[in-house]
Design brief:
Layout (H helix, E strand, L loop, with lengths): L16 E5 L16 E5 H12 L2 H74 L1 H10 L6
Antiparallel strand pairs: 1-2
Helix pairs in contact: 2-3
Family: Belongs to the KXD1 family.
InterPro entries: KXD1-like, KxDL_dom
Protein name: KxDL domain-containing protein
Length: about 150
């Protein structure tokens, strides 16, 4: 097996270039074609020419116009989203502060209510100790309540 150093890689600017006749339906043989009519075209240019033959110029223009319109719409939507995000952020900051204040208020109200119900239970217990007969009468007349 030959070593990689013995393998000759093609190199030079002419390796990827093709020679072809300018007019394939010409009546001249290869010997009669002047050197100027032979064109050297690299692979990418040849590929591009073949691709351009597949699509009409009108279709290319239409695609370019569609791309420009799409880019304009994308740009305008990006601006609209940026404006909306700024608005949303400001409203969120405002509402978040209000929500925090309301949450604190509800927490204080709950604490106050727990204190009031504790006092009511303590008063009921004390009244029940001082006036057990009256308390039993009141409890029997009223349906059971949650404490």
């Amino acid at each position: 097996m030959p070593s990689p150093s013995h393998i000759q890689e093609p190199s030079g600017p002419d390796y990827f270039q093709l020679q072809f006749k300018a007019l394939p339906d010409s009546n001249l043989s290869n010997e009669q074609v002047p050197q100027e009519e032979l064109q050297k075209v690299d692979g990418s240019e040849k590929f591009l020419e073949r691709c351009m033959e597949l699509v009409s110029p009108e279709m290319v223009d239409m695609m370019l116009q569609f791309q420009q319109e799409t880019a304009q719409v994308l740009h305008s939507r990006t601006e609209e989203l940026a404006i909306f995000n700024e608005f949303s952020q400001s409203k969120y900051q405002e509402l978040q502060g209000r929500f925090q204040k309301h949450t604190e208020l509800l927490t204080h109200l709950r604490t106050d209510l727990e204190h009031v119900f504790r006092r009511i239970r303590a008063l009921k217990s004390r009244i029940g100790q001082l006036y057990p007969e009256e308390m039993a009468t009141v409890i029997s007349e009223r349906p059971s309540e949650e404490e």
